[in-house]
Amino acid sequence: MSKENRMHPRQVLDGTVSLFLHESKEYIGLMVDFSATGIMLSSYTPLELDSIIEVDMVDIPPNIDSRRTGQVKVQVMWADRITPSMYGNGCKVIELSDHAKLMLASYNN
Length: 109
Fold this sequence. Notes:
Elements: E1 11-12, E2 17-21, E3 27-34, E4 38-43, E5 52-59, E6 68-83, E7 86-96, H1 98-106
Antiparallel strand pairs: 1-3, 2-3, 2-5, 3-4, 4-7, 5-6, 6-7
């Protein structure tokens, strides 16, 4: 197995971060991991390659009674089947809202 050629290390999530299309609020899937420049998300169908989507990240952090929401704009770079019913989608981050930056920073603990 070859070592991945990444500029930024991936952070694996301890909790669940749900992802929704910003405009329609349609559920896309879950964030699997992230780095300073990208996110991987799991979905039931592959996302369209090279598409640019605006996504709402929603989580409920431990010991907090309310959910947090942040927006991220990404470009879909690849999509691969990871189980018979799930796809992994690699996305390049184009833009992060201030709330999204705070949320991702909190996952680094």
